[in-house]
Amino acid sequence: MRTRLSKSAFWSRAAVVCTLLLAGAPAAGNADPVSAAEATSAGQAPLPCAEAPSQSPSGRTPAPTPAAATQVSTIGQAYTCILDHYFARDRLNHRDLLAAAFSGLTVELARQGLDRSDAMMPPLEGDRAADWAAFAAVYERITAALPADAARRQAVAAATINTMVGNLRDNHVRWARIAPPPGEPREMYGLGIATSYTPYHAAHAPQRARAPLHITAVTGGPAAELRLRPGDVIQSVNGAPLFAGGILSTGALGMLHPNSAADDPVRLSLRRPSTGRTWTATLKPGWFTPTARNVTPTLLGGDIAAIRMGAFTPGVADEVLAAVADLGELADLRGVVLDLRGNTGGSPAEVARLLGAFAHGKITGYNCDPGGTCTAHRTDDTVPLIKLPLAVLTDDLCASACDHFTGAVKHHKLGPVIGTRTSGMVSGVAYPYVLDDGSTLRLPTHYGLGPNREIVNGIGVPPDHVVPRTAADLSTGRDPAMAKALALVGKVS
């Protein structure tokens, strides 16, 4: 599901980092500038990506709307960006990237019934630029013979670049091509549901998926109109089961999280645990204004500030602290419970600021360059301490900045962590690079470590108290993790 907070914040729930703009390079002498496509056709190296100097990891520049087809020049720019900016670039073999890209090309050709006898990888000599030129020449020869159908051509290009990017096996590397609807931008596109597992998690940690797959939140749109509820179990999608032999079907899962306004209606077979009811519902994905807020405060037990937070978006730390202060006007607070279940991550600056309300002078993690030199992330000590006990609720969808926040809370014993292990999708802060078709390639230029210099990526942060929330719990309104937090808050974990 895609999200946007407003016109001024075109994309919101992702690693909130600086946007890097494509820099054009003029040709020598008095000639006109050479476009990326012309450079590739002329046998030149793809144009490089360049950082926008006015941005920082705590800011955001809206990416331009994709307006052009993905061409060989776009693939070349992604190839160059990876080799120039990815934190593990010194360990990369450029031939592996090109081989992965060619594999993606041929798989998509075969899927469309367009495979060719001459679709063979060219010999690679070990020179980065020369090998790219050889790849590009073969790619252009193959794609020149494709049908004129723009959608089919785009699918071939997308498969090529996605397979190359996927070869990195990094949970913070992503290529995205997103076009907004005409007219006034809406905030979300999709079916209006969040699920207990997502395509993003399935791509990087499929072994963690557990049946049944269920709705964890209804965010609005088609799902709200049909009165679907948290806890509803999705048994099949368009007749395809979500699990077969205990293995998650990524194809079926992907249909629950469409990424294009052209997606067809989706037929769901559902079961409601609280009543045993089973039924079928057809949802047509579309743009809608979400009903769920990023920060939802509730006063529980008469004196506990329970704050649910969906993402570490810009300004969220101050919003959370303001919500705590507002609840403090209603009662003499005994503690704070931060519910980070389903939190999609975001800005490291917001992590530092929110942690700064509970502790000062603490290292929250490390940002390390390719040579192993690490810079500490620290609490933002300009934030006044609120001097209230803390408990944190997590699950296996708590990702990226949420991993970071939870790891710091656990390491520094700022309060009990309750729920299930976090996602461990925290390879490093990802910086967006805008390519010549308007698409965005996100790459971490540094890798992340936890506050004890431990690897969290791929592992996650375990809770102090393992208390999962099941589909039946959601369906019946039970929340054993929150109940545990209310019992523990104010005590030593």
TrEMBL record:
Cited Pfam families: Peptidase_S41
UniProt-listed InterPro entries: ClpP/crotonase-like_dom_sf, PDZ_sf, Tail-specific_protease
One GO cellular component term: outer membrane-bounded periplasmic space
GO MF annotation list: endopeptidase activity; serine-type peptidase activity
Keyword Plastid applies: no
Keywords: Signal
Residue intervals of the Tail specific protease domain: 276-468
Start and end residues of each stretch annotated as Disordered: 45-69
Signal sequence extent: 1-36
GO biological process, one term: proteolysis
PANTHER family: CARBOXY-TERMINAL PROCESSING PROTEASE CTPA, TAIL-SPECIFIC PROTEASE
Protein name (Swiss-Prot/TrEMBL): Peptidase
Source organism: Nonomuraea longispora
